[in-house]
Write a structure and sequence with these properties.
The complex is a heterotrimer of chains A (355), B (404) and C (294).
Chain A (H helix, E strand, L loop, with lengths): L8 E2 L2 E2 H22 L2 H27 L6 H19 L6 H20 L4 H20 L4 H4 L5 E2 L13 H25 L1 H11 L1 H6 L4 H27 L1 E2 L6 H14 L4 H21 L4 H15 L3 H18 L24
Antiparallel strand pairs in A: 1-2, 3-4
Chain B lengths: L2 H20 L5 E2 L7 E8 L9 H16 L7 E8 L4 H14 L4 E3 L4 H13 L4 E2 L24 H15 L5 E6 L2 H14 L3 H4 E7 L7 H9 L4 E5 L2 H13 L5 E4 L6 H8 L8 E4 L13 H13 L8 H20 L2 E2 L1 H8 L28 E7 L4 E9 L2
Parallel strand pairs in B: 1-11, 2-3, 2-4, 4-5, 6-7, 6-8, 8-9
Antiparallel strand pairs in B: 10-12, 12-13
Chain C lengths: L1 H31 L6 H17 L4 H24 L7 H23 L14 E5 L2 E4 H23 L1 H11 L1 H6 L4 H27 L7 H14 L4 H21 L8 H15 L14
Antiparallel strand pairs in C: 1-2
Helix pairs in contact in C: 1-5, 1-8, 1-9, 1-10, 2-3, 2-4, 2-8, 3-8, 5-6, 5-8, 6-8, 9-10, 9-11, 10-11
Classes of the chains: A mainly alpha (355), B alpha/beta (404), C mainly alpha (294).
Chain lengths: 355, 404, 294
């Protein structure tokens, strides 16, 4: 768009304007949702938001900085327990706990990312998986029981909406999560557009060259680990509030696998992809169960493989391709590329992992 | 009277009775029940590491298939809706909310697992949904004051632990106890039970307490350590797979303690046979369900009815698996409760009937073990029978015991 | 001292389980540069096939070898049908396909054979095998270790001395050049999958008599095998086997001797130690460093 020619338009609106309209429409739908569906569905969509935040966290790490993690369930658990312990032991109100949980996870993530940054590929996968396996064990660890509640877990009280709002708890908690989701998504978008974002993507694409150009790769890799953990930790914190119960059995290594699946199915390296991933993780197992009571795992596995065949770049990749084709068709040839900055589009680098 | 008037009279009478039907004058219902149907909700782990329990949900489903084929209960069919929660508490919350709010079940039955049931404990009580005969032996399900809508069924793990403790105190005064336990609610509850039963002797008697995780491939290492702790009593709190491994390993390394096996794994076919019959001789346990492989029950009418039901309605299920006997017995209990409810199928009445059972005996439970509940007794089954394995089958000894 | 030796020997026995599956992982990695997360579930599925054959009356060794052949075929089939369409996809997409395979095999086994545990026969007699002093080991445990070593030798010979093995290594390391010299790269990949599945089936049949057969039998064995393979060097079959043994021993030692943490966190401890090693020797103890060109 730098050649001085007039901006291409569809029906009088530029590509950028259309994207803003799309975003506005999405927000209107998201805000109106609790009034259009039952409480149970509102609760489910709340879970979608929570998973989306967690998946975005993982995406920041893997999609944007190229570090694979099979252990994000650990940060989810730490965030949830941080919230639960704060609420249970010190009666900290639930709306204060997410930032605290985020900070705790930021620290843990950074500290873990520091040595882990020296690993790559399968080794990093193993190290992060070790984290996923370790955290539930630590949660059950006897000496920590007075804090963590041990295997019995911690029961939390159901939050009440503010008395001056004519909505029920499910709707209130949904909006609470929604606000946090929007804040975190915008923050991620900003982070990736800035200098840090550039550095991070450089590390993913060509780490050695980036280092040669003066990027402090160790620091950035640890930083992005921390930020990624922060996001997933906040997701965990929200989950504690919404479910009102935490126990070691709530946080198994399967959660780490789910975050991973959600990220890839949603779309690697795409902020919007996190939402698609969240929808998949929450609803697909139920759909698989409806299809086959006897062996839902088989159906789920087949659907998963099918998704990867049809949309190897995730749903976000597919959506992007469709939009691009639509736009090109509507504008005729010679139209500009709708950059997709809102989604933080980057070239889908195949991992860039070394072993 | 003339024909016209007669016709009017008959028509009016018919009309009144039909109107009565439409208004359900003969049944009181809450959501989930009507003249035709009673809808029951359940969650079970059909996927994930705890899937071996999933056979219980399948067996219950098969039981209600049979009931429905036989005409239902009081003329109503049972719609048993069972959802997979993968033994994950957040998933249980989601599925139970679906059952209550979307499927609109009348009540929940035999939801499985301690952490999973814990996650929904407050919810179901706040919503006043009967949470009946939960499939776990934790002690917390018998608190009618605080949680009037939740009720357990099986003897609690602490009850069983206390039974073993009493046996040890009475018969093995110089006991040195080594414990293998699953590192979760179920395991820890059992350990608590035996400690409570031993009282102040617990500290000196228990010489080793070793946990294992469900994800461990073997527990051989724990058994070796237990032997070297000098224990002469072995309290084995593990699920079938690991219980079998433990029995076999203990024998193989020449460790011959007095072996208490928890009732969850007290199954000849699925535990003792894989371990090796000759290796399991002398193992003690306490049970309340008939072991389907026990020849002494082979001719009893309730076993034969059970076997016939398994063949017809649950052929994929294992006829040697005690879980399937358990499922049958608890389903029979519910059948009794629903029959007693008659046409008053409100949630309050279901709860009321469930908490007024008096000395009920159901098929596939050991003779002499009865089910009793009351307004302040939410522990239906409290009795167990101690048994010893003789190399072929369980031999009962002693009286039927209860917790206190 | 007695306890130490018994735990050490026990660690070797469980380590043998990990080592045997680690060999399958090495095979698949040699052939495809990928780690197949579904390898454990495929091995479990093969073991169920063997169980079914034995259950209908086939003698053990006939069932054993037939299972190996069937598993080989299934491995080849999976590669051609399931993996081929996504060969060119991004790495993480392929990993999700592996996860999908894992879930499918696991759930399928549970559906067909139920989740009740089943005993699985061992070709070795059920007698303790006295080593020395008081230390005994089951004949099967010792036998399984021998079988693992035998498979290791076969794998080593295959890659070192046969033209097919060379072709497979070439196809994995440099597909383009391999095609130029006439190697059918596609079939090499399929062969690799087939061999890995066959090795996995042997692993499964050796593991099942120890842990009993159930659909979740291999779930965590895979993790240990993976750790062992990385510890020893993912490119070295011998290294992976040694790594597997080390993981088994490490875990037992951690469980028995580390105070406080001991049994509750022994898996964590074992993994931490492995990671520590790998940080200092990034290609594992016996692996060769991989050079990355910028």
């Amino acid at each position: 768009m730098s050649n001085g020619a007039p901006m291409p338009t569809i029906a009088g609106f530029s590509g950028v304007a259309w994207r803003k309209i799309g975003l506005a429409a999405l927000i209107i739908v998201a805000v109106g949702l609790p009034f259009m569906v039952s409480d149970y569905r509102t609760f489910q969509f709340n879970l979608v938001l929570i998973w989306a935040i967690g998946i975005l966290g993982l995406n920041l790490l893997t999609g944007f900085s190229g570090q694979i993690s099979l252990g994000h369930g650990a940060f989810y658990a730490i965030g949830a327990y941080t919230s639960a312990i704060l609420m249970y032991q010190w009666q900290v109100p639930y709306y204060v706990t997410p930032p605290i949980a985020g900070v705790v996870c930021l620290a843990v993530g950074f500290l873990f990312g520091y040595p882990a940054g020296r690993l790559a590929g399968h080794y990093l996968a193993l190290a992060t998986f070790a984290l996923a396996v370790a955290v539930p064990q630590i949660l059950k660890y006897d000496p920590l029981e007075p804090w963590t509640g041990g295997v019995q877990g911690i029961f939390l009280d159901r939050p009440e909406p503010p008395f001056w709002l004519p909505i029920n708890t499910d709707q209130w908690l949904y909006y609470f999560s929604l606000v946090i989701t929007v804040i975190l998504f915008v923050a991620a978008w900003n982070l990736l557009r800035g200098r840090s974002g550039l550095a991070i993507r450089a590390i993913r694409d060509q780490q050695i060259a980036a280092k040669a150009m003066g990027v402090d790769t160790t620091f950035y890799k640890s930083l992005i680990f921390g930020v990624s953990a922060l996001y997933t930790g906040v997701a965990g914190s929200l989950s504690a509030t919404v479910i009102q119960f935490v126990a070691p059995d709530s946080f198994t290594f399967l959660d780490s696998i789910r975050f991973f699946i959600g990220m890839v199915v949603g779309g690697l390296g795409s902020i919007a992809g996190a939402i698609y991933g969240g929808i998949f993780i929450v609803f697909m197992p139920n759909i698989a169960e409806e299809i086959s009571k006897a062996a839902p795992g088989v159906i789920y596995g087949i659907i998963l493989i099918g998704f990867m065949y049809i949309w190897p770049l995730g749903v976000a990749g597919f959506v992007r391709a469709v939009c691009a084709r639509l736009v090109r068709g509507l504008m005729g040839s010679g139209g500009g590329e709708p950059g997709g900055a809102k989604e933080g589009t980057e070239r889908q680098v195949p991992g860039g992992f070394t072993s | 009277m003339n024909t016209k008037r007669l016709t009017w009279l008959v028509a009016a009478a018919l009309g009144l009775s039909l109107a009565g039907q439409g208004a359900w004058a003969d049944g009181k219902y809450d959501v989930g029940a009507d003249d035709e149907i009673i809808r029951i909700g359940n969650t079970n782990p059909y996927s994930g590491p705890a899937s071996s329990y999933g056979t219980i949900g399948k067996a219950i489903s098969a039981f209600f298939d049979m009931i429905n084929d036989q005409g239902g209960i009081n003329g109503r069919k049972i719609d048993f809706v069972s959802l997979d929660d993968g033994y994950s508490p957040p998933k249980t919350v989601e599925q139970v909310r679906k059952l209550v709010e979307q499927e609109q079940v009348l009540f929940l039955f035999q939801t499985l697992g301690t952490p999973t049931n814990s996650a929904i404990h407050k919810y179901v009580n706040a919503r006043k949904v009967p949470h009946l005969f939960v499939a776990t032996g934790a002690t917390k399900w018998g608190q009618p004051d605080e949680f009037p809508w939740s009720m357990g069924w099986q003897p609690t793990y602490t009850t069983e632990g206390k039974i073993y403790a009493r046996y040890i105190l009475d018969n093995i005064p110089d006991a040195k106890i080594g414990i293998l336990f699953q590192n979760d609610d179920y395991g820890k509850d059992y350990v608590l039970g035996i400690k409570q039963g031993l009282g102040d002797k617990a500290e000196e008697m228990i010489v080793a307490e070793l946990p294992y995780e469900v994800t461990d491939p073997t527990i051989d290492s724990q058994i070796v350590s237990l032997r070297s702790s000098g224990a002469n009593v072995f309290y084995n709190v593990s699920i079938p797979k690991f219980a079998a491994q433990a029995i076999r390993k203990a024998y193989d390394i020449g460790w011959k303690p007095v072996h208490f096996l928890n009732s969850v794994s007290a199954s000849v076919k699925t535990v003792l046979e894989p371990a090796g019959f000759e290796k399991a001789v002398g193992v003690l346990s306490s049970i309340y369900i008939k072991d389907p492989t026990d020849p002494q029950w082979a001719d009893s009418p309730d076993y034969q009815a059970w076997a016939k039901w398994m063949d017809e309605y649950y052929p994929r299920g294992d006829k040697g698996d005690t879980f399937n006997g358990y499922a049958y017995a608890v389903s029979q209990t519910l059948k009794h409760v629903l029959e007693q409810c008659g046409d008053d199928l409100t949630r309050a009445n279901v709860m009321k009937v469930a908490s007024s059972i008096n000395g009920l005996e159901v098929p596939m439970m050991l003779p002499g073990i009865t089910i009793t509940t009351g307004a302040d007794d939410f522990y239906p089954v409290e009795q167990m029978q101690m048994v010893r394995f003789d190399g072929e089958t369980w031999q009962e000894f002693g009286e039927i015991l209860s917790a206190d | 001292m007695d306890l130490f030796v018994q735990q050490f020997v026990g660690g070797l026995a469980t380590g043998g389980i990990y080592a045997s599956l680690a060999l399958a992982l090495v095979m698949i990695h040699r052939a495809t540069e990928l780690i197949n997360f579904a390898q454990g579930e495929m091995a479990m599925f093969s073991t169920y096939i063997a169980w079914t054959l034995i259950n209908v009356g086939m003698p053990y060794w006939a069932a054993f070898f037939l299972t190996i052949i069937v598993s080989f075929a299934v491995g080849v089939l999976v590669e051609r049908v399931v993996i081929r369409p996504v060969e060119k996809a991004p790495l993480l997409t392929i990993i999700v396909v592996f996860i999908g395979l894992l879930l499918t095999f696991n759930s399928l086994a549970g559906w067909i054979w139920t989740y009740t545990i089943k005993p699985f026969s061992s070709p070795f007699p059920d007698r303790p095998f006295g080593l020395f002093a008081d230390i005994t080991v089951r004949m099967h445990d010792a036998g399984a270790i021998l079988v693992t070593l035998l498979v290791l030798i076969l794998v080593y010979l295959f890659f070192r001395f046969t033209p097919l093995g060379l072709a497979m290594r070439g196809a994995a390391l440099n597909p383009e050049s391999s095609r130029l010299v006439g190697i059918r790269v596609g079939w090499m990949l399929a062969l690799g999958w087939g061999l890995a599945a066959a090795i996995g089936s042997v692993a499964g049949m050796m593991v099942a008599p120890i842990t009993f057969l159930d659909p979740n039998m291999m779930a965590f064995v895979l993790l240990y095998a993976f750790a062992g393979a990385l510890l020893g060097g993912i490119n070295s079959p011998g290294g992976a086997v040694v790594g597997g043994f080390m993981v088994g021993v490490l875990e037992n030692m951690a469980g028995t001797y580390v105070p406080f943490i001991g049994n509750e966190l022994k898996l964590t401890l074992a993994l931490l130690l492995i990671i520590a090693v790998v940080i200092f020797r990034p290609s594992g103890l016996f692996g060769k460093p991989v050079v990355v060109r910028v």
